[in-house]
């Protein structure tokens, strides 16, 4: 469905979902990987929210952080992450749906913490979406646009079949507010989150595990880390010290986070090729204005 130009090993495109489902999703995105002469291409994904991926052609291998590489099921679900997902493929064409925390609440039927830093068969997640049958429908589609229309139809049908209760609608507003506070660069402590959301520390902790997958303190650390990564993607010539988020005391502070989230130093990471992630970040930035999913603000909130 995606065509690679001469010399390219990866291509990506992003398509905005239908307005009815847009508040719940980051985007629909499509990736093609073709290693030269059948060579395996390897890259490292940044921490992000959950997504379901349908590899309709070829095969990918991957892991979470430093786990063993294994074949990834053609229809697989990746929960929210605070660590890298290394992956590889000699050839793969993938269609994906990215879910924001609000989308977890709308479509999933188990706590996000159950899938924190986890990737597995898509049929294993408790959801109102028919993940087990969607791969064959993706294979039959002729283009990314056709797949996007298919995704729209499936998600809208699921929403129509499972209307929100009044309590669930109220919960949506709390999730939007919490997500907006989390991605606000001014948020640096759990106390700030509890004050702005009117929650106790225990309430926020339970809420965060259920909808976001991790404790709030870890999510705040992830956000400052992702903001630094995004700054380098925006300006590849920048050094790490110039790109540091203001919440970092100094570069050693950032280096510790980098080793925890990626299992290597920033300089080691930068020396590695990133053909897939670089192409995806450029395409996402062109389509959506931001290179990384975890920085996307909930719909209807002003930019930071």
Structure description:
Keywords: DNA-binding, Transcription, Transcription regulation. It comes from Sphingomonas lacunae. GO terms for molecular function: DNA-binding transcription factor activity; sequence-specific DNA binding. Residues 189-272 form the HTH araC/xylS-type domain. It holds the Pfam family HTH_18. By secondary structure, the protein is α+β, with helices and mostly antiparallel strands. It has a domain at 10-163: Jelly Rolls (Sandwich), CATH 2.60.120.10. Helix content is 42%, strand content 19%. The chain contains eleven helices and eight strands. Strands 1, 2, 3, 4, 5, 6, 7 and 8 form an eight-stranded antiparallel sheet that branches. A hairpin with a 7-residue loop joins strand 4 (50-62) and strand 5 (70-71). Helix 1 packs antiparallel against helix 4 (166-183). The longest helix has 19 residues, at 216-234. The radius of gyration is 19 Å and the shape is globular. The mean pLDDT is 94.
Structural key phrases:
304 residues, alpha+beta, Jelly Rolls, 11 helices, sequence-specific DNA binding
